Structures are given as C-alpha cells and as structure tokens.
Amino acid sequence: MASADKLINTDVPEKDVFALHFLQSLSNLRTQNPLLNSPDKSIDRVKKIKNAAYVSMARAAGGTSRLWSRALLRRAAKDDNKSVRFSRRKRKVTWKISSKRRRSNQRAPVVEEAAERLRNLVPGGGGMETSKLMEETAHYIKCLSMQVKVMQCLVDGLSPN
Amino acid sequence: MDEFAAKKKDLVNTPVDLYPPENPMSGPSQMMDSFRETLWNDGGFNVHTDADTSFRGNNNIDHRPLEMGWNMAQFPADSGFIERAAKFSFFGCGSFSEMMMNQQSSLGVPESTGLFLQDTQISSGSKLDNGSLKDASKLVKDRSINASEDSQSSGGNGHDDAKCGDTSSKGFNCKKRKRIGKDSETNQSHRVEQCGEEQENKKQKEEQSPNSNANKTNSEKQASDSLKDGYIHMRARRGQATNSHSLAERVRREKISERMKFLQDLVPGCDKVTGKAVMLDEIINYVQSLQCQIEFLSMKLSAVNPVLDFNLESLLAKDALQSSAPTFPQNMSMLYPPLSYLSQTGFMQPNLSSMTLLNGGLKRQEIHGYESDHHNVVHMNNETGTAPDHEDATADMKVEP
Predict the structure, then answer these.
(1) Among candidates B357, B386, B352, which has minimal Cα distance to B370?
(2) Residues whose CB is less than 8 angstroms from the CB of residue B9 and which lie 6 or more positions away in sequence, other chains included
(3) Are residues B303 and A121, on separate chains, in Cβ contact within 8 Å?
(4) How far, in Å, CA of B303 to CA of B306, rounded?
C-alpha cells in the first residue's frame, strides 16, 4: 500500500504483519501467566490485551521509526521495567522541540487548540511541532484502523457461532 | 563565504593601527578604482559561478584574502572604505560585474532601476543551474523585493536610515529601504558581517539597501515573479509582508494545510467538511473512536475466550483471518488434526506463511516456514482427505472457495 503523497510517507504494513505481531504478543501474555487462565479481575485481562494490542501495533507499524510508536514502546517498556533499544535512524525530518512551541503560541489559536487535543490523544505528541504532529497522526490513524481490522477478524473468528 | 567575510573584516581592521588616517579621502571612487585594480592584479577573485563552488572547498583560495588584506593595508582606513571592502567580500554571491554595478551605483552613478535589475537578472539567470546559487538568487530576490518595497515607501533618507537602524539591530528583517547616504554604510558593514551567518531562506541581504533604486518600476515585480520558479526558498509574495517571521509563519501554515489535506483523505467522511477547525475536530473524533473501538474489541476478545488456550485460538484466528467467515467450519475440521502437531512445533515461530493468508483473500501464498515439518503437515492433511499438492507449499492451508 504505497502512499500517493511522496512528501509525507505514511506507508503502513499489510494486515498480516499486524496480525502476526498481535498474536505474538497475545501468546506472550499466555506464556507469562500460564496458570492464570481466568484471572479474577477481567478488567486486568482487558487491560493486558489492550496493552498487547497497542504494543504489537507499534512494533508492526515500524518499531522505532515513528515518533508515536517510539513513545508507545517506551511507555510500555517503562511499565515492564525494560528498556527499549533504538536503532540509529537517519534524520530525514527534523522537528522543532517543544520549548520552541511554547514560545509560538500566538499561532492560529484554532489550530493550536486542536493540536493540543491531538497531542493528548496521539502517544508521544507532547514534543512535536504541529506539522510533525499531523504527519504522525496520519500514520497513527492508518495503523489504528489496521489494528482494528485485525482484532475484528480475531473476534469474529473466535466467537462461538 | 561567511568565514571569508570574517577574515576580510579582520584584515581590514588591522591596517587601522598601521596607517593612521592621515589622508582625507579624495573620493571613494578613486579608492575603489585602485582597489579594484588590485583585485584584478591579484588574479582576481574567481567571480564566476563555478568558482563559487570551488571556492568553498578550495583551501588555496583562502590565501587570497591574505593577499588582499596586505594590499588593502596600503589604503587609509576609513569607514567608507571598510564598508566597500566588506562589500567586496560578497564576490561569491554573484558575478563580479554585479558587484561593479553595485559599486558604480553607490558611487553615485545613477542607474535606472529597471535596467539595473534586468542586467543582474540576466546574469543571475544564467547561473540558475549552479548549486551554490543561493546567494545569487537572494541577491536578485532582494533587489526585486527592495524595489517593490521602495515603491511603497515614501522618500526621505532620514526616515529610511532610522528604519535601517532598527532592522540592523533585529538582524535581517526584510524591511528594505534604499539608502544613498554614506552614514548608512557603517550599518551595512555590520549587516554584511551578519549576512554570512544568516539562515538561508528567511533573511535577505542588506547589501541591497545601499543600491540606489531611484526609479521603481513595475517590471521589477514581474521579474521577481518570473524568477520564482527557479528558487527553492520562500519568497515574499507581492503585497505581503516580508518580515522573516511572517515568511516562516507562512511556510508553516502551508505545511500544516498540506498535511491537513492529507488527513482529509484518510478520515472517512471528511470530503465535504471545509475549514480547519471542523476538520481538526473530525480528525480528533476519529482518532478517539478508533481508540474506543480497540478497547471495545479487546474487551470482547477477553470475553470471547476466557480460557486462553492460545494455540488453538491462534490457529482459529489464522483461519478466521484468511477467510471471512463463510468457509470457516470447513477449515475448522481441516485444521484440528494438525493442531496438536503444530502446537508442538512451536507455532509462534515468525513465519509469514499463515500471515499471508490474512490478506483478505483466498489466494495461496508460499509458506516459507516449517521446512522440516512440511511433509509431515502435508501428510496429516492427507489423512483428512484433502488433496495436497506436494509441490505447493500451502497444501495444509488450502481453502476451498
């Protein structure tokens, strides 16, 4: 699935990559808690599955080559007391750091408000300039929709009908 | 170029001590003539464009400023001279002829602005292919913008000088005013220094300001428009502020709107929506809804199969993913026999085989995994009665359409 826009690269892998990663993470869940087949609190399980979904999505979507995926992985690794290894990536795009952003709050308050809300939604959005944020949002949306499709298929496949 | 300018400044300043200004300047023109000759005699700075590129990488040319400096030591130090000398540091910015024209014009030889610009544009147009054209382009750009600016400005050099003083302190804001007076030249020398340190596309060289564009014509504006295509940098458009901040703002705005258009294609149902605010709200809502969907689906997943017998689950999932439900029962029966076997072989080896089946279709893909176990799997399929292809690697995953 090649993106038509050559300037902004938001290519996202196929569904199978997402599915693979998701199933891998689910199996990790299984192996982590072999005896806890049915934990008492289903909420925990839901959370775990949800986490697994996000983390697997981040990995499938290109690992550490995207800002939001990096932030997601870092956040998840922090919870697990692990550390994320970032491979060296070539800096094709540079973005302004957040300190500059503070200064420039006079810019189109409409856009900035929305950007602020978006930053709360998109992981890792806090340190991004608005234009970079838009790029990341586009890629994030693509990955989210892919993940939703995968999970939908899973649920359909597993539901006892 | 900036280091060269800096070097030149240093060298120009040193003679101040050696040669006290005993001679009043007979006139800048005479000095410049002799100075010019010195330049030529030195073998000249290579003012051709190909030398521009070579200059930057060529260490040999670094000696030239030294020669120049010693030659310049012969001249009495003068603020005007310093400014002139500093101006010559911009030989790299364009052709030498351009500089000569600069000098001539500032020396009081009046030139109609239209002619002046045309000449420079012709000379710079020929250099458009060169990689180090930034300076040249800026030169021409500056002149044309200066022209357009000046056409709007009222006369009065005093007013202009005050303005220039402000701008020089700010750096290179693009409020250009043409100045003919000499008192502006010291300001220019400062700006000339700073020029080398500027960023590329936002600043304009103040070197243009001393050019006396007495007559502003509309042809300059047209010329500036026509040259737009050759440049990479942002230019001030006609009738818009040329403040460096507003230029940067405009670049940023365009970036953002470009990305918003991209997002518009991505988010379903946003074709009719116009306007940034509504569009952004839609995007935010969409992201939120996607995240909610994921949460909901994960809840469903956890509810659907409370006993996470994962191998079975994954196999079923694999199957479900490959076929969207209708042939599901058949595949179930087909898959159960190899199920236990596959679970032993370590199902979760990263193999693309099964995952390729997820591509929504029923097409067969090559399985690259299970090399050692392949025949066993096929053998198991034989038991179930499916017709395996021994050559076809996807035998065990065949789906009847």
Answers:
(1) B352
(2) B86, B89, B189, B193
(3) no
(4) 6
Nearest-angstrom CA–CA distance, B238 and B312: 68
Closest Cβ opposite residue B286 in set A49, A114, A141: A141
| CB < 8 Å to A27, chain B | 310, 314, 347-348
Residue B263 near residue A137 (C-beta atoms within 8 A): yes
* pLDDT per position as a tens digit, B259-318: 888 888 888 887 777 777 888 888 899 999 999 999 888 888 887 765 555 554 555 555
**Which two structure tokens, joined as six digits, stand for B340?**
């236990």
Instruction: Please list every residue in chain B whose beta carbon sits closer than 8 Å to the beta carbon of residue A5.
Output: 262
Q: Are B89 and B45 in contact (CB under 8 A)?
A: no
Contact criterion met (CB < 8 Å) for A16 and B317: no
Asked if residue B284 lies in contact with residue A118, where contact means CB atoms within 8 angstroms, the answer is: yes
Taking an 8 Å cut-off on Cβ atoms, the answer to whether A156 and B325 are in contact is: yes
Contact B192, B1 (CB under 8 A): no
- Nearest Cα residue to A16 out of B368, B295, B386: B368
- Mutating which of B305, B314, B315 best tests the A interface, going by the most A Cβ atoms within 10 A? B314
pTM for the full predicted model: 0.45
pLDDT tens, position by position, B332-356: 333 334 333 333 444 443 333 344 4
Please count the other Cβ atoms lying within 10 Å of the Cβ belonging to residue B168.
20
Contact A134 B305 (CB under 8 A): no
Helix ranges (H only) for A8-108 are 15-32, 42-60, 67-79, 98-103
**Short-list B21, B134, B15, B12, CA closest to B84:** B12
Please list every residue in chain B whose beta carbon sits closer than 8 Å to the beta carbon of residue A37.
306-308
Residue B314 with chain A: CB contacts under 8 Å? 23, 26-27
Domain boundaries, chain A: 9-86+93-158
Q: Two tokens at B131?
A: 């990689």
| B318: its two tokens | 């694999």
